[in-house]
């Protein structure tokens, strides 16, 4: 079980572990409203696709409580009352599809509970708690399935943080790594530092060290020589959104790693719960890629490191084409060499 607890629902409020301050400070930010949750997502207090989705669900539970519409079971009235907080949450970060998946689950719940003349605020709180719990169980299943692919004695490379911190708990890529470590098949992990937010250095290295899983941190510039010279067998990453054809959007730099993995004959695994698929888009070309502020690159710890007025591009994510992905592991099984047909078949068989 993971020892990291990034999202807590306590006394009717959301407590988010402030991931901007890790690993040296462990502080929770209290969010008592949907707006506060949207601000926390936008500011990266909480990050990682599943964790963003779960937080948004709690945000909608807070919005329903704030809406003060007890006594009405009119779905149109409820949707109207929830429209503004829903829009604020939807605008917080664009790439992780789990955010929109969670909001769609809330919309459905509002309709159902209104039909049954139930208590919307209580139902949305219960839904958020359920999505949170389910995510942990899903990651444990996904982790165990992915770990079966890891040959004994393997060293693997991971990027960003797709761990307990990025999810309800246990993690996706780090779920596979946790399970492989438990099974005795993992020798160690290389973690790329992941500029500019350093999720690899601050979060992944910390998370793995909490559990005594051997981790070696490297710069992203070192990835090529590490993959070539250090007996790495797998690159294992998470995803913010997977298109119907298997193109994978994940933290910027993932695409580079997939090219390097293919060049060096290593295998590339995306560990992705089905809630991170967007079957409504044909390919990764349609995935909205978040552009973040220039100062994330021009400045370091508040100090300018680039010339004034330097032009900057700062995409937070990139798209790895399906052709470079060897396997996608979901909570239901393994999709080898993902294609539109293989993904459709996986969903038809397992997701109803
Ligand atoms: O900008 P972030 O930190 O939210 O980016 C997170 C990632 O890219 C993760 O790899 C992805 O969300 C998968 S988390 C299981």
Task: Give the topology, please.
Blueprint: E1 7-10, E2 13-17, E3 28-31, H1 34-42, H2 49-67, H3 75-90, H4 97-115, H5 120-147, E4 154-158, H6 173-183, E5 186-192, H7 199-210, E6 215-218, H8 223-229, E7 232-237, E8 241-243, E9 248-251, H9 254-263, E10 267-271, E11 277-278, H10 295-298, E12 299-300, E13 303-304, E14 317-320, E15 327-329, E16 334-336, H11 340-350
Parallel strand pairs: 4-5, 4-7, 5-6, 7-10, 8-11, 10-15
Antiparallel strand pairs: 1-2, 2-3, 8-9, 9-14, 12-13, 15-16
Helix pairs in contact: 1-2, 1-3, 2-3, 2-4, 2-5, 3-4, 4-5, 5-6
Bound molecules: 5-S-methyl-1-O-phosphono-5-thio-D-ribulose.
Number of helices: 11
- Topology, number of strands: 16
Q: Could you state the order of secondary-structure elements as H and E?
A: EEEHHHHHEHEHEHEEEHEEHEEEEEH
What is the helix content? Answer: 40-55%
Q: How many strands, what sense, and barrel or not for the largest sheet? A: 7 strands, mixed
Q: Low-confidence spans: pLDDT under 50, at least 5 residues?
A: none
Q: Report Rg.
A: 20 Å
Class from secondary-structure proportions: alpha/beta
Distance between the termini: 28 Å
Shape: globular
Bound compounds: 5-S-methyl-1-O-phosphono-5-thio-D-ribulose
Please state the average pLDDT score: 97
Strand content: 15-25%
- The main sheet orders its strands as 6-5-4-7-10-15-16
């Amino acid at each position: 079980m993971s020892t990291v607890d990034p999202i807590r629902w306590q006394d009717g409020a959301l407590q988010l572990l402030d991931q901007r301050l890790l690993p040296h400070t462990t502080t929770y930010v209290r969010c008592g409203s949907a707006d506060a949750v949207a601000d926390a997502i936008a500011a990266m207090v909480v990050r990682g696709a599943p964790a963003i989705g779960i937080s948004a669900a709690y945000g909608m539970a807070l919005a329903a409580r704030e809406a003060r519409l007890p006594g009405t079971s009119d779905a149109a009235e409820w949707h109207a009352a929830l429209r503004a907080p829903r829009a604020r949450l939807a605008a917080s970060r664009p790439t992780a599809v789990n955010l929109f998946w969670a909001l769609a689950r809330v919309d459905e719940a509002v309709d159902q509970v209104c039909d049954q003349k139930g208590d919307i605020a209580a139902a949305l709180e219960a839904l958020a708690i359920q999505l949170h719990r389910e995510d942990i169980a899903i990651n444990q299943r996904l982790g165990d399935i992915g770990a079966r692919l890891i040959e004994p004695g393997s060293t693997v490379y991971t990027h960003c943080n797709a761990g307990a911190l990025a999810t309800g708990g246990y993690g996706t890529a780090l779920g596979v790594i946790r399970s492989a470590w438990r099974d005795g098949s993992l020798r160690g992990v290389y973690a790329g530092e992941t500029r500019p937010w350093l999720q690899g250095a601050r979060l992944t290295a910390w998370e793995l060290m909490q559990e005594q899983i051997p981790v070696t941190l490297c710069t992203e510039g070192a990835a090529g020589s590490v993959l070539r010279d250090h007996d790495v067998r797998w690159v294992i990453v998470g995803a913010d959104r997977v298109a119907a054809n298997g193109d994978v959007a994940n933290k910027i730099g993932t695409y580079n790693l997939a090219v390097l993995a293919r060049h060096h004959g290593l295998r590339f695994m995306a560990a992705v719960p089905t809630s991170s698929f967007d079957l409504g888009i044909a390919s990764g070309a349609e995935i909205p890629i978040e552009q973040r502020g220039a100062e994330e690159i021009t400045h370091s710890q508040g100090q300018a490191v680039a010339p004034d007025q330097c032009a900057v591009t700062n995409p937070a994510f990139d798209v790895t084409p399906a052709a470079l992905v060897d396997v996608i592991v979901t909570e239901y099984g393994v999709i080898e060499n993902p294609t539109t047909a293989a993904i459709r078949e996986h969903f038809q068989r397992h997701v109803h």
